[in-house]
Specification:
Blueprint: H1 5-10, H2 19-43, H3 47-55, E1 59-60, H4 63-68, H5 72-75, H6 83-104, H7 106-130, H8 132-135, E2 142-143, H9 147-160, E3 165-168, E4 172-175, H10 176-189, H11 196-217, H12 224-238, H13 268-287, H14 294-304
Antiparallel strand pairs: 1-2, 3-4
Helix pairs in contact: 2-3, 2-6, 6-7, 6-9, 7-9, 7-11, 9-10, 9-11
GO molecular function: peptidase activity
Domain DUF6576: 263-306
Organism: Echinicola arenosa
């Protein structure tokens, strides 16, 4: 039997449908790479050079700066400075990401993280360019961190399954909807403070998380472009030919991906299993995971590990 957290983290890129650990691994590896770079450049008197290199991957508030480095709208969300900055982001990503991945699957977890990061960056740029309070600081403003994507996952999980309970130290059992509300309120209250840009990004990510899940329940997946890009790079690096992806009409957002051609069986038991899984996922969408019977949970678990 496979190991736990550390096994999956170390082997993040050796397993499919493993977005949570891939995102964790990328964040940690990037953090360590920039940590080593900072130490060596600082010792060698190159602090200014390090700051310049770092700025190329951070999200600028000024539009004229962003146009020169458009990649930063993605790279900034994998970049951290400070051990506590990355520690708390990765803890929340892991705790809430497990829920999202369990209910919606690996691909939609990626959708939430990436779209949340983009939404946070867009709100950040919008406010710094049009709100008088922030515009005076626009040219020097730069942002980094996974917080916007993490907030999207936290709020997305709370929207999806609000009554799931976490047992917190000192506080005891707390429903995740209250955890999400608390952190959104804190971000809003601090949106004019010393880390105003970061708090604005938090709010943008949180809003995206809520609307993503709400629209997904109605059959609209905002993350299809993210999945298409991810599939392109997956095929590119794996050397496999591109596969045309089709979607069934009027499909509910929680139904499983169509089986690959080579995995399909002609016998009736396979078709029945697919139908049962679709019914289970519909039940989750309507009543939540806790409404499932032990047998339904077992079937869902076995299917997800095929």
């Amino acid at each position: 039997m496979y190991g736990g957290f550390w096994y999956y983290l170390k082997n993040a890129f050796n397993h499919k449908d493993n977005s949570l650990y891939k995102i964790l691994a990328i964040n940690i590896l990037v953090f360590l790479a920039f940590l080593v770079l900072r130490v060596f450049l600082t010792i060698g008197g190159g602090e200014a050079l390090y700051s310049r290199i770092l700025s190329y991957f951070m999200m600028p508030a000024a539009l004229d700066h962003f146009i020169l480095q458009p990649w930063s709208i993605i790279t900034y969300m994998f970049l951290h400075e400070g051990i506590f900055h990355i520690l708390f982001n990765m803890l929340f990503l892991y705790w809430f990401g497990l829920l999202v991945q369990e209910y919606l699957g690996s691909r939609k977890l990626t959708n939430l993280y990436v779209l949340g990061g983009i939404a946070g960056a867009l709100l950040y740029v919008l406010m710094y360019n049009f709100a008088p309070y922030f515009s005076n600081h626009r040219d020097a403003a730069l942002m980094l961190g996974a917080s916007a994507g993490v907030y999207a996952i936290v709020v997305g999980a709370a929207t999806l399954t609000p009554d799931t309970t976490f047992h917190l130290i000192l506080l005891g059992p707390v429903k995740i909807k209250y955890i999400a509300i608390f952190y959104v309120v804190v971000a809003f209250a601090n949106s004019t403070g010393s880390n105003a840009g970061g708090e604005l990004a938090h709010l943008g990510g949180a809003a995206l998380g809520y609307f993503y899940i709400s629209l997904l329940r109605k059959g609209t997946d905002l993350g299809r472009p993210v999945q298409a890009v991810g599939q392109f790079f997956e095929n590119l690096f794996s050397g496999r030919p591109n596969v045309k992806v089709t979607y069934r009409k009027k499909n509910t957002p929680y139904k499983s991906e169509p089986l690959k051609k080579e995995d399909r069986k002609t016998d009736s038991s396979q078709a029945t299993t697919q139908e049962e899984i679709d019914k289970i996922l519909d039940k989750i969408a309507e009543k939540g995971y806790d409404s499932l019977s032990k047998e339904e949970k077992r079937k869902l678990f076995e299917y997800s590990n095929k």
